Structures are given as structure tokens and as C-alpha cells.
Please model this.
Amino acid sequence: MSWKIAQIFVMPGRPDYEQLLRQAGADVTLTKRMCESEDEIIATASDADAVICSGPLQPLNRRVLEKLVKCRLLQTTSVGYEGIDVAAATELGIIVSNVPDYCLEEVSDHVMGLILACTRKIVALNEAVKAGKWTSVASPYIREKIWPNLARLRGKTLGLVGFGRIPQCLVPKAKGFGLHVIAYDPFVPDSVFETKEVVKVDFDTLLRESDIISLHAALNKNTEGLIGAEQLKKMKSTAYIVNTARGPLIKTGELYDCLTKNAIAGAALDVTDPEPISADDPIVKLDNVIITGH
Model:
């Protein structure tokens, strides 16, 4: 029996799923189309037996799922699946599957890159040189705006909010730079913290003691808006916050207010709320914010 598969998330560098499935002995026909709207998904996948998607980035709500009349499997290529109405899928007899070990090295590498960009002022120094302001003590811009905020990583404390696969992968990289690592995650057993030689702390302790906070929590009703004005006020004024998890973990407006008042040193965001973020959004204009495009 031949199975029809719709790949509705198509990006460069993705595997050739049809070839992989055929190598595994499956008789499949695969249709590829990058779908961004509900109607595009329905038009492409309405008669598919299985759908390969990106759960956080595509609208797979009840309306769409009810139109996928033959579908029995939704395979998201990501760790997160918050864009999929799992309850509706379950009701309709559709299995939802994710990839728990997707991009562990890549995301943890990116976190380290953002930490270095913040503390070593790599983006600001690059822009300064390109603007004709070489890194010399003779330059008031460098002397007054950049040098005072350069920080050595060794001996600093990195606080991880969430201690799943990606932050666990980050730990040896951070320790290689001499960072002391603490983490908050009420759902991870103490034995995991002990194995990774990471200190388990409560949330308030992490906020107070960290020089860099990196967010790795899943997005759900309990974590949406996890970081707002109340939490930011507990951080050191010299601290940075890094978010490579999900944009809505942070209340963007409250982060903006905090950054404009220099209540914390800066932020590095690979995810935003909304996403994609507008180039006219006020937070994009701030000198103490680095943003990369998820």
C-alpha cells in the first residue's frame, strides 16, 4: 500500500524525507510545499496520510485538522509543538509526534555565541569599527560606551531556567569558559543535576545570583510571561538575559522598559513576541539588545 505524505514545512538544509522513508522500506509519495496559512495547509495536505510540519510555526488548529480527513500522523520537525491543537488531533484520531533531540548542539552553540556577543560586546565593536571608531582609548565612544561594559566570563554565574536536553548540552560549553552554572527546573530529578554537576536552585535565587540568565523552558500556560517586570527587578543591574526558547516566555513591553532604564545590562533574543518582530518595534532600536531570527 502506498502512503501519501505532505511536507508543509520546507527549508534549506532539511533532510530528503522521501528518500529516507523509501530506504526504510516505506512505499510513499511525498508532496513538498512551504505552507504559512491555514488554507495553504488544507490545500496541500487534505488527502495526506501523514503531515511533516513545524509545530510552533504553523497554524495547525481544529479548523485545519478537521480538513485533514485521511491524516493519522502529524510529525513536527521541532522539539516544541505548541502550534498544534493536540487535544483536537487526539479527538480526531491523529497522532502528534515531535523530535526531542532536534538541534541540541546548534541551539546550545547559539546560546554560547549570544553570551559572548553580550559580554564581549562583539556586535557593538563590529559596528563601531565599521563606523570609523577603532577600538582605541582615544575614542570617547569606545572608552565611555563599550569598555566599561566588557566582562570576563570566568567566575561569572550562568543561570539556566529549564534544565532539559538543550541546557544540559550547554553546560560543558559554559564550563569551558569558566562559568559557574546553576539551574531552576522543578520537573528534573536531582540526580540529573548531580550528574551534570550543576547546582539546583529556586527561581528567585537564580534571578538574584545569575550574571547571565538563559531561558530554556517549554511554552505553556504556566510559563507564558514567566519573565516580567517583577522578575527583572530581582536581577543584577549588570546581568544579561538570553532567550533561545520561545518569545512569549518574556513580557516584551516590560523587558523594553527595563532595558531603557538600564535596570539590567542587556538582552539577547533569538525568539520574540510577536514573531517575526517588526523592524519598527522599539526594542529592536535599543543598543543593549541583540536579536537573531530564530
